[in-house]
Amino acid sequence: MDNPSGPAPATDSHLPMGLRTPLRDDAFARSDDEKISAISGHFEAIMRELGLDLTDDSLAGTPRRVAKMFVKEWFKGLDPANRPEVRMFENRYDYHQLLVERDITLFSCCEHHFVPIIGKAHVAYLPGEHVVGLSKLNRVVQYYARRPQVQERLTRQISEELKQSLGTDDVAVLIEADHLCVMSRGVNDTSSSTLTSEYGGRFATDEALRREFLRQIGK
Ligand SMILES: Nc1nc2c(ncn2[C@@H]2O[C@H](COP(=O)(O)OP(=O)(O)OP(=O)(O)O)[C@@H](O)[C@H]2O)c(=O)[nH]1
Ligand SMILES: [Zn+2]
């Protein structure tokens, strides 16, 4: 959704300072279409500098394609207008055991190199008086993944959002991901992967519960 110019809610104002994605105050002063036009021009300059011929049929549309991909797909989680609404339902089933949403597809982008981070997120919580629609767990993961990220902050942002939305500290998040910046350049290591986790409430204190979560996600 485009933001008209004017004050917009600051991204992550609901999160503690240290967990917020660093953004300028005027981050949403321009509409998505204005950003796509500007980024397209900047990316065209990069391609020119690399010596590419922008009159080539196959390359001509690339600057705009990349700009659109950045604004509308890869980085759409920067815009608070895209923050998913997480509605809770009364726990009529009286279900209070572990609920695990595992193997959530995760596409993110390394904020140091602007190349993909690809992996899976596993999240769990202990339902109290309310339960959440399952897809909302996936949506929360996707919202925070679709930003320039480091895996540690992504893990904690998802955990904090779920604690607030679900109204409980009993939340677990584990992310396993491959960083293309490690695989395709620099150390060029294609076999290592990165695991991060955050355990809140009873997951932090109850080792048996944590073990059960890890067993259920196959760890
Ligand atoms: N902690 C953390 N580091 C990350 C993540 N993604 C990438 N990095 C690291 O960020 C670091 C950036 O370090 P620099 O030394 O400035 O960059 P570089 O010269 O490209 O480093 P090399 O990758 O070692 O070639 C690298 O070590 C990356 O592996 C992440 O999600 N979390
Ligand atoms: Zn990187």
TrEMBL record:
- Domain GTP cyclohydrolase I: from-to ranges: 40-217
Q: Name one Pfam family in it.
A: GTP_cyclohydroI
**Pathway entry:** Cofactor biosynthesis; 7,8-dihydroneopterin triphosphate biosynthesis; 7,8-dihydroneopterin triphosphate from GTP: step 1/1
Q: What class of enzyme is it?
A: hydrolase
EC assignment: the record states 3.5.4.16
* Residues noted as binding Zn(2+) in the record, renumbered to the chain: C110, H113, C181
Gene3D superfamilies, from UniProt? 1.10.286.10, 3.30.1130.10
- Catalytic function, reaction form: GTP + H2O = 7,8-dihydroneopterin 3'-triphosphate + formate + H(+)
Q: Which UniProt keywords apply?
A: GTP-binding, Hydrolase, Metal-binding, Nucleotide-binding, One-carbon metabolism, Zinc
Entries under InterPro entries matching the protein: GTP-CH-I_C/QueF, GTP-CH-I_N, GTP_CycHdrlase_I, GTP_CycHdrlase_I_CS, GTP_CycHdrlase_I_dom
A GO MF label: GTP cyclohydrolase I activity
According to the UniProt entry, where is the signal peptide? none
Q: How does it assemble?
A: Homopolymer.
Q: Which family does it belong to?
A: Belongs to the GTP cyclohydrolase I family.
**What is the recorded name of this protein?**
GTP cyclohydrolase 1
Species for this entry: Hymenobacter armeniacus
